[in-house]
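Pilot study result, target chain (235 residues):
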Amino acid sequence: MILRRLTEHVKAQNWFAVGLDFLIVVLGVFIGLQVNNWNEARKQADLQAKLLERLEEEFLALEPVVADLVTFSQSAQKSTADVVNALRQETPPTDEAAFRSALARANWALSVPQVAAVYSELLSTGRLADIRDVELRKALIRYGDAHERLERTYPVATSVIFAPGSNYYRAVDWNMDSATWIEDGAIVSYNWEVLRASRAEMQSWITFQYDLALFADAELQEIRSILAILAEDES
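Predicted structure:
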C-alpha cells in the first residue's frame, strides 16, 4: 500500500508526499523495532526475576545444611585435639565417659553437600554474566570457588581419616549398631597402648578437619552474602 502510493507520488513528482510517505515508513520501522526491544527487555526482566527467585529458594535451603557442616567439622576437630592431648599422658584419662565421647567423634567427617544446582546451571550455560547485580555475581563466583576447595579437600581428608589400617582402627572397637554412633555407646572398647601409637595419625586428622571447617565456613559466608544481596534487591 505505502509502496504503491510512494511510486505514484514519484511519478507525479509530488516530493512533499514522497517525503511524507518515506517518513511514515521510517517511523513504522522505528516503532516496530522499539516494540521488539521492549518485548525483549520485558522477557529478560521476567527471566532475571525468576532466576533470582530460584537462587534465593535454593540458597535458603542450602544455608542450614552448610551451617551444620561447619559446626560438625569444628566439633570433630576439637574432639580429635582432646584425644591427642589425652594420649600425651602415660595413663588413660580419669574421665572415661568424656574420653570415649571425644574418641567416638574424633574421626567424624560429614559429607559435602552438592553445589547449588542453579549455580551449576549458570556456569555451564555461560549465563552467570547475565546477572545484572555485580556484587551478586561476585558473591556467586566466590561461593563456587569456596565450594570447589571444599569438594577437593573432602576425598583427601576422608582417605586419611578413614584409613582402615590406621592404629586408631586397630585400637578402637566400634559398636556395629549405627544408632549408637551419636550417643555415648559408640565405642565398645579401646586399647590404650595401641591407641597411643595413633597420636601422629590423629594430629594429621586435625589438619584436614581444620581445612574442612575453614572451607565450609567460607562457603557459608558467601551463601549468607548472596541471600543478603537478594533480600536487599527485593526491598
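One observation from the pilot: The first helix runs from residue 2 to 11. A full batch analysis is planned for the follow-on phase.
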